[in-house]
Amino acid sequence: MKSETSSATCISIRLIGGLRVERAGRVMTAATLGSPKARQVLEILALQPGISVSRERMIELLWGGNPPATARATLESYVSVIRRHIQPGQAKTGPLRTEHGCYFLEPKLVSVDLDRFERLVGRVDGTKPAEAYERLLKVLDMATAPLLSDELTVEWAEEARRRHEALVVDCRIRAAQAAVAVGNNDDAVHWAQRAVASEPLNERAWTALVAGLEQSGRYTEALQAYDRYRTSLRRDLGCSPGDELQAAHSRLLRQTSSGEADLAELLSALLCLNEHVKQRAGGRPAGPRIPGLDVADHITAGSVIGSFLDKALAAA
Question: What domain of life does the native source organism fall in (predicted)?
């Protein structure tokens, strides 16, 4: 005799993008799964398959702390609607279960894209850069749309979207870092730029972007990226980039002062250096020796300016 679980039909649920449920070849969407709150019952449970949600908690999530007097009965009607759609004829043995006053989705009968996404992310840890990069590309291929895009106004969905987007940004940064490690610098720049677009003050994202540009030999662009981040950070948070980015900045200034840089690169380096000097000097006019500016800054300034003058004389 077959067990209840083995005789039930499995379903596939997509939460990344619009809601989509597939059962035995039939596809259901947000528009065909009943009222908004009915489908939200399924979405809330699908965010964590196997985790029980009490009736009280479900009511709180659905009505935002202001439930109607009939909330309990209405919730039961929503659950019945969803069961008719996703497990017809299997009220007790289908994916949506009720136990001790709680609802949950039986994980053996449900495949959720968000759950697969998070599991794949976990498998990246501890792998070598080439393998990590391949896995991250597969992960990011799943995250091409916002989570729960059918639910734009409810608080619980917005919280879930924020958590998911933060994880996606982290994966983009890790993909950029892995791409630099394997020498795929163009991809590194691409993923870092995507991360920066999502989180403009994320220092890890800017560090990955500067690294990708530097490894590509795009020193002027790297300096410009650093300066954009430094300016935003100073304006919005009143602080400066961390040690790793500042070290990259100093290294880039030295690289652009070498014989391989053209005059445009040197001029860009001088402009960035001027901003750095003004910041460190508190806006005071820059003289031959600026109080508060360390020796390395003066060496870098002298190197860049000297090289620039040599180039200018040679060009003349």
Answer: Bacteria
Q: How far apart are CA 230 and CA 241, in angstroms?
A: 6
Residue 26 phi, psi dihedral angles, 5° rounding: -95, 130
Task: List the CATH number of the domain containing 57.
Answer: 1.10.10.10
Cα 253 to Cα 224: distance, rounded to the nearest angstrom: 11
pLDDT digits (tens, 9 = 90+) for 240-271: 999 999 999 999 988 876 544 455 455 555 55
What's the confidence (pLDDT) of residue 281? 56
Q: Within this chain, do residues 13 and 95 fall inside the same structural domain, yes or no?
A: yes
Residue 277 inside a domain? The answer is yes
Please check whether residues 149 and 98 belong to one and the same domain: no
Would residue 116 count as lying in a domain? Answer: no
Q: pLDDT by residue (tens digit) across 176-234?
A: 999 999 999 999 999 999 999 999 999 999 999 999 999 999 999 999 999 999 999 99
Return all residues near 29 (Cβ < 8 A) that are at least 6 apart: 18, 19, 20, 21
Name the domain count of the chain: 3
Q: Give the chain's largest Cα–Cα span.
A: 93
pTM of structure: 0.79
Note every long-range contact of 80-88, with CB atoms under 8 Å and residues 24 or more positions apart, other chains counting.
81/33, 81/34, 81/35, 81/38, 82/33, 82/34, 82/38, 82/39, 82/41, 82/42, 85/21, 85/28, 85/32, 85/33, 85/34, 86/11, 86/21, 86/23, 86/28, 86/42, 87/8, 87/9, 87/11, 87/23
Report which DSSP code applies to 34.
S
